[in-house]
Amino acid sequence: MFIGEIRMGSQSQLIDMVFDTGSDWVVIPDKNCTNCDGRRHDNLISGIAVDNTTITERNYGSASLQGYTWKDKVCLGSSAATCALNMTYFSFIQQRGINDPLEGILGLSQNKQMMLSSEEMIVGPIFPNELFKQGKLLTPSFSFAMNGYQADEPSTVDFGNANPMRANLTAKITLGFNDDFFWSTYMQAVKFGNYSEYAIDGSPYAIFDTGVSHLMVPPNLLEPFLDNIIGAAGGKAEYAI
Predict the structure, then answer these.
(1) Per-residue pLDDT tens for 151-175?
(2) What is the pTM of this model?
(3) How many structural domains is the chain composed of?
(4) Do 18 and 92 belong to one domain?
(5) Over the stretch 48-72, which tens digit does the pLDDT of each residue have?
(6) Are strands 156-159 and 198-199 parallel, antiparallel or unpaired?
C-alpha cells in the first residue's frame, strides 16, 4: 500500500494515510475516537462542523467507521500550495479495521457512479479535485511511482502532472478505464514472466486499488489461471483453495 502523511487544520496535525484509489472521502481519526491507534485530530481547534449531531457510518471492505462530517484545511505539506481549504472530510470516533501503521484514508476514486451498482450514490469530495477547483493543480490528476527516484528510495505519489524524473513519459502503456467510481477495466490476459500470455475468457471486470496489496482473481477463474501459468513454466499445478 502507498502510505504517507497529510497535515490537518491550523495546527498541521500529522496523520498517516493510505492513498486509496478504491474510495472517495478523506477520513481521519477524531480526538475522541475510543479505539484508534496513533495520532488523532482535534476538529474543534479550526474545524467547522457540517454535521456533528448525527453519527453516520462508512464501510471500506474490511474496515467500518462511525463518525461525523467536518470542514477544515487538508494539506500534503507545509506549503499553502498543497492545501485544500475548507475541505469536507469524515472524522471517525469508532472504527474497526484500521490498524498500525495506518491512521486514516485519503480517497482517490473517480468522481462517478459505481458501474455495477443499481443504486445512485453520493460521491464524496476527492482531494485532487478540491486542489484543482482551488487553483492548486493544473489538472485534477495523480500518479504513483514505485520505489521513488532510485530503487532504494520509497515509493511516491505525485499530484498534478507526472514528474518526468519518476516516469518515462515516452514509454507508457495506455489503459482505457470504465465510466465508473473505481479505476476499473476489463482483464484480457495475464503474462507470467517470459511465458506466453494466458487469455481470460469473458474479460472479467477488474479494479486498480492501491488500498490492497494483492492480485485478486475471481474464484471461477482461479483454477484455469493457475493451471495455465504454472503449466507454462513447465511445472505441475498443486495448490489449495
Answers:
(1) 667 788 889 987 777 766 666 677 7
(2) 0.85
(3) 2
(4) yes
(5) 999 878 899 999 988 999 999 999 9
(6) unpaired
